[in-house]
Amino acid sequence: MKNISLGKYIPGDSIIHKMDPRSKVVSFFVIILFFILFNRIVSHIAGFVILLLIMFIAGLSMKNLLGLLKTFRLFFYITFLVHLLFTEGEGGYSWLWFNVSFHGAYNGLLFSLRLFLLLFSGALLTWTTQPMEFTNSLEKMLSPLKLFKVPVRDFSLMMMIALRFIPTMLDEIEITKRAQMARGAKFEGGLFKKIKSLVPLIIPLFAQSFRRAETLALALEARAYTSDHERTYYKPLHFNAFDWVVTLGSCFCLLFFLYVKMFI
Fold first, then answer.
1. Is 184 left (phi over 0), alpha (psi -120 to 50) or beta?
2. The domain containing residue 90 runs over which residues?
3. How far, in Å, CA of 26 to CA of 170, rounded?
4. Which of 259, 262, 254 lies closest to 34 in space, CA to CA?
5. Domain assignment present for 217
6. CB atoms within 10 A of CB 137
7. Beta bridge partners of 263
8. Of 132, 190, 206, 217, which has the maximum CB count within 10 A?
9. How many domains are contained in the chain?
10. Phi then psi for 128, rounded to 5 degrees?
C-alpha cells in the first residue's frame, strides 16, 4: 500500500502545478475522451508519450509512475486475461467456453493499456493539483447546475473529503497491517491466501472509516457548517494567459476528435 500515490498531491513549482485547476480538469477530460474514441494501440502509445512529457515538465520522477504500475498490475493482468480467454475470433483455439485468438490478445493488450493510461492521467491530475483547489474548480465549473437545484457545493465537499481521505486511509491500512502482523497474521503466499488475509484488514478499516466519518460530521456540525450560503476562498482561482491557451486548445482538440470520429 505504500506504493500507492494516486490521490496524493506532490508539491512542486512547475508550470503544471501553477496552472488553474479548471484548465487541468478540462484537459483531463479531453485526454480521457481521446482514449475512448480512438481504439488503436498506436493512438494509445501516442497519448502515453504526451502524458510522459507532461510528467517530466511537472518535475515528477519515474518512481511515481512505476509505483502506480506496480500497485494496479493485478487489474491489468485480469483485464488482459478476460479478453484473451473470452473474446471470439477467427483462427483461434476454442475449448469449452474459452476462446484464445489473436483478436482476443489484441483486445486484452488494448484495454489493459487504456486502463493504465486512464489511471496515469488521473494520477497526473492529483499529483499536480491540491485537493482544495481541485474541488473549488469543480464547484466553479458545475455552478450553472445550481439553477436546476443541484447541490453542487455538497458534491464538491464530498469530493474534497474523499480526496483527503485517500492518503489517510492508506496510512491506516499500513498501520493496521503491521499491527496484525505483530499478532501473527501472515499476508504472504498465493493469490487466494492473499485474498483471505485481507479479512483482518477490512474489518478494522471499516470500523476506523466510520469512526473518522462520524468525527468529521460532528466537527462540521460544531462549526455550524452549512452549504446554503456563499463562501469565500483562501486562494481565489484566476486564469492566466497560459491557462487560456491550454483550455482553448483542449476545446479545439475535443471538437477535432469528434469531427474525425463522426465524419472521417
1. left
2. 15-151+227-263
3. 28
4. 254
5. no
6. 20
7. none
8. 132
9. 1
10. -110, 5
Asked if residue 172 belongs to a domain, the reply is: no
Assigned C-alpha cell, 62 = 519515474
Query: Going residue by residue through the chain (264 aa), what tens digit of pLDDT does each one get?
Result: 455 566 678 888 899 999 999 999 999 999 999 998 888 888 999 999 999 999 999 999 888 888 888 888 888 988 998 888 888 766 667 776 778 888 888 888 999 999 999 999 988 998 998 888 888 888 888 888 888 888 888 888 787 787 777 777 777 878 888 887 787 777 776 666 666 777 777 888 888 888 888 888 888 888 777 766 667 777 778 888 999 999 999 999 889 988 888 887
DSSP track, 100-154: E-HHHHHHHHHHHHHHHHHHHHHHHHHHSS-HHHHHHHHHHHTGGGGGGT--HHH
Cell of 51: 502524458
Domain-embedded: residue 188:
no
